[in-house]
Amino acid sequence: MSPSAIAIVRVQAFPGQAAALGLHLSELLVQVRQQPGCQSGELQALAADRWQVSTCWASQAELDAHLSGPKAQQWLGRLGSGELALGLEFESRSAE
Q: What is the second-level CATH architecture of the domain 5-94?
């Protein structure tokens, strides 16, 4: 089954937090893969202090439901809080 929606999050680590951020993202990805409609997820190091999480979803509606849910909001809030990451970029697109 090919995905209908793709979500990409790029995250810049706070100085000295690259390894902790990578571990945190890896743990989050395990949980995201269990969300309804998530078909796959991948974590990639773009640089020594920059990470990318890519997920594929069965439908845009399932991706939207995930993103608006309390777990995703909590995860994104922690990433954006400056605790582990300086900031993040989010991109969502149709796979078609």
A: 2-Layer Sandwich (3.30)
Q: What is the mean pLDDT of residues 6-26?
A: 92
Which tens digits make up the pLDDT trace of 17-29?
Answer: 999 999 989 998 9
Instruction: List the end-to-end C-alpha distance of the chain, in Å, as a whole number.
Output: 12
- Which pairs with CB-CB distance under 8 Å and at least 24 residues apart come from 17-20? 17/84, 17/85, 18/48, 18/49, 20/84
Q: Residue 11 in contact with residue 88, Cβ under 8 Å?
A: yes
The reported pTM is 0.86
DSSP state, 14? P
Q: How far apart are CA 74 and CA 15, in angstroms?
A: 22
Domain regions of the chain by residue span: 5-94
